[in-house]
Amino acid sequence: MVSELMTEYGNNRCLIREISEICNKKAAEIGRENLCDFSIGNPSVPSPLAVREAMLDILTNENPLNIHSYTSAPGMMETRDAIAENLNKRFGTSYTGKNLYITSGASTSLVCAIKAVLKDADSEIIGIAPYFAEYKAFTEGNGGRFKLVPADTEKFQINFDALEALITEKTQGVIINSPNNPSGVIYSAETLRKLSALLKEKSCEYGHIIYLISDEPYRELVYGDEPLPFTAKFYNNTIVCYSYSKSFSLPGERIGYVLVPGEADNWEEVYSAVAGGARASGFICAPSLMQKVIARCADIEPDISVYRKNRDFLYKSLTEIGYECAEPAGAFYLFVKAPNGDATPFCMKAMEDNLFIVPGSEFGCPTHFRAAYCVDYEMIERSIPLFKKAFEEATK
Amino acid sequence: MVSELMTEYGNNRCLIREISEICNKKAAEIGRENLCDFSIGNPSVPSPLAVREAMLDILTNENPLNIHSYTSAPGMMETRDAIAENLNKRFGTSYTGKNLYITSGASTSLVCAIKAVLKDADSEIIGIAPYFAEYKAFTEGNGGRFKLVPADTEKFQINFDALEALITEKTQGVIINSPNNPSGVIYSAETLRKLSALLKEKSCEYGHIIYLISDEPYRELVYGDEPLPFTAKFYNNTIVCYSYSKSFSLPGERIGYVLVPGEADNWEEVYSAVAGGARASGFICAPSLMQKVIARCADIEPDISVYRKNRDFLYKSLTEIGYECAEPAGAFYLFVKAPNGDATPFCMKAMEDNLFIVPGSEFGCPTHFRAAYCVDYEMIERSIPLFKKAFEEATK
User: Fold this and answer.
1) What is the pTM of this model?
2) Which helix (H) or strand (E) holds A215?
């Protein structure tokens, strides 16, 4: 009686959330101190103090009618301007508030961008494994077709031969995510240059723009000394999707943005299409209190020292055991090869020993598993013997 | 290069917002005290004190990681249970938290419900004028077809002959909105009984369920002595879409819900399809702080005395001038017949005299205009000579 596709989406829930809920049930039974939960990417560091103080100050001192009223759909201009200025300072760009559309986080941003670029029922979007599996639902659930480039399991950059083979005249967009969930790898400047060259060539060949949709919620979580290459500087027709979920530890509050750079061809038309995608999705405005908070706090930098410490310890410990792991340069995930090369049974077995990790099948890369290290350090310490036992059992 | 439909949606903005922004510009020029702004439905009464206190208390006393983390996609169970209990107390129903899916307000709820019931590209949704024009974008922007029943300009109930003529085997849903924006009229129990009988008959005739999507953000804003007839009690296959925007004066914060009653046929499948519609729209969870606020405040009743006083005075004044007006039983709008029967030029002319009202063309009923009376009483007093002048000019 209802939509089969939507019912399927509603029934087949995201595996990460499934595992996380199994874990929570088990925690209620045996106590959280008796299990090791690496299942979900919920930040373990509280929001920056300035962010929390801004919320309280606004609620205490501003007129509630001003705080909680509708804003314009693209967001408050002071919020948009503050974000543009911050990006310009950091990346040498020249955006204004008019390039920004404030959304309810990166997923909303992605749906707006995808709806904007899908032209008809044959339009295609390409994702690159390992990837956030919701890209497929966001595309197919809005009338498009989704294709996946298999993972480069060597370096976790992009398998360009496979990507080139998948691009057709129907390709409207390619979605990338760097720093990557689940691999933690950052796409190098070389990768972005090659990607830009390929997309330019193919746009030219097919006579229409292929947009690069850059999903960047982990942009601020980078552990190396080199700054992250800013995708939009490599390819003009980039649509940037951002969220404050990870950088400001506000995943429940749903605040982020779409950036349509002024360098994009006919950028104002692209921006209108993004706004139309938002409108068709029932988006009215981003949460107004959080818009006010971002207007004040756009320049605040997150403290990533806790995640860095976790990463260093977990990576060192796992590689000492013998695990092979993608280079953990950003985000808060390790993506680790299952010792027997098949992560699903490996993760199921680990779960029996109260070690909760997510099989890479969820991300289009079934040889690996994901461990989210946005957790207590003490839990990582407790987990090492469990990882060791799992490794030994799988390799004996 | 991008979607034509989405670009159109992005460019052709909602007329209400256009007029409101013209008004704001004018206010910046001549001072807000020199114009009368009845354009937009932004609540003029601050959020209930208990709601504001709950926000501050949660932010001050709870762990920020608990406040701002992802919740499960359908929402926190304590929030869902609190809403179910409140509905049960007031309407004699027997819902549980499992019947509720917390959303980012009524528009998100509507898109989830519409995506849930659209089966294929031929599926149709029917709206009833006067109506919230976004229903059309929510339907067509998600791959369905939209049809509109012309207004019953006599009583502003439902033109049943026209509705019956529009229902086909492709009809998947009918959207109603009572108390109605823009008319302020409440659908009577008799109307809801007739609607239920017609939908049952047609569901039977075509061998599939026609869902009633009930958009109820104004449910708590009712000025008569009789309680509002609760739509879901008249027709089992109702999907209720609610928002706290108006009742708690939180339109910017985006918090509401979808209710799928246990009485609906295969209600769990319908609920799954709604959840799938949310997932495909990039909805992750409703804003978590607001979910916590609603869990505490679900039983708080809004103080509607300000709106009642405004309504009484504006209605009395306009009818004394000679205007004809729909019965203003709920919400915070008067829907008034333009003296010459064509509201668009009437509203344009009024705007020149700094009286900002919205032509009914925006709502599928071009003979009338909407005046949102969620405004200062003093402004209503100032507006009466302007309404008088506009009436006299149009009838001379």
Assistant:
1) 0.97
2) strand A211-215
A210's tokens: 């292929």
Separation between Cα atoms, residue B66 and residue B63, nearest integer Å:
5
Nearest of B168, B221, B214, B215 to residue B195 by alpha carbon: B214
In terms of DSSP bridges, do strands B368-372 and A238-243 run parallel, antiparallel, or are they unpaired? unpaired
Whether residues A59 and B60 touch (CB distance < 8 A) is answered with no
Q: Does residue A132 sit in helix, strand or coil?
A: coil
B45 phi and psi, to 5 degrees? -105, 130
Q: Which of B370, B375, B387, B380 is nearest to B180 (CA)?
A: B370
Alpha helices by DSSP H, listed for chain A, are 4-11, 15-30, 49-61, 64-68, 77-91, 106-117, 134-140, 160-166, 189-206, 267-280, 288-297, 305-321, 343-352, 377-395
- What's the complex ipTM? 0.96
What pLDDT, in 10s, does the model give residues A3-15?
999 999 999 878 8
* Res B107: pLDDT: 97
With residues binned 3-state (H G I as helix, E B as strand, rest as coil), the percentages for chain A, rounded to 5, are 45, 15, 40
Nearest by CB to A119, which of B3, B266, B287? B3
Please give the radius of gyration of chain B, using alpha carbons only, rounded to the nearest integer. 21
Mean pLDDT of B207-228: 95
Instruction: Please report which helix (H) or strand (E) contains residue B359, including its range.
Output: strand B358-359
Using DSSP's 3-state secondary structure scheme, residue A242 falls into strand
Burial class for B364, CB neighbours closer than 10 Å (0-12, 13-18, 19+): buried
Each residue of B269-321: pLDDT tens digit?
A: 999 999 999 999 999 999 999 999 999 999 999 999 999 999 999 999 999 99
Residues 293-352 of A with CB under 8 A from B: none
Q: What is the pLDDT of residue A14?
A: 80
Q: Say if A10 is an interface residue toward chain B (CB within 8 Å).
A: yes
Out of B121, B251, B285, the one facing A252 most closely (by C-beta) is: B285
Structure token digits, residue B26: 């004018």
Written as one letter, the residue type at A335 is F
pLDDT at B382: 97
Residue A247's closest CA among A388, A82, A41? A41
pLDDT tens-digit series, residues B119-155: 999 999 999 999 999 999 999 999 999 999 999 999 9
Paired sense of beta strands A124-128 and B238-243, if any = unpaired
Cα–Cα dist B283/B286, whole Å: 8
Whole-angstrom CA distances from A6 to B65, B204, B215 are 31, 24, 21
Q: Which residue has the tokens 């390619």?
A: A174
DSSP 8-state symbol, B278: H
What integer pLDDT is reported at residue B12 of this predicted model? 86
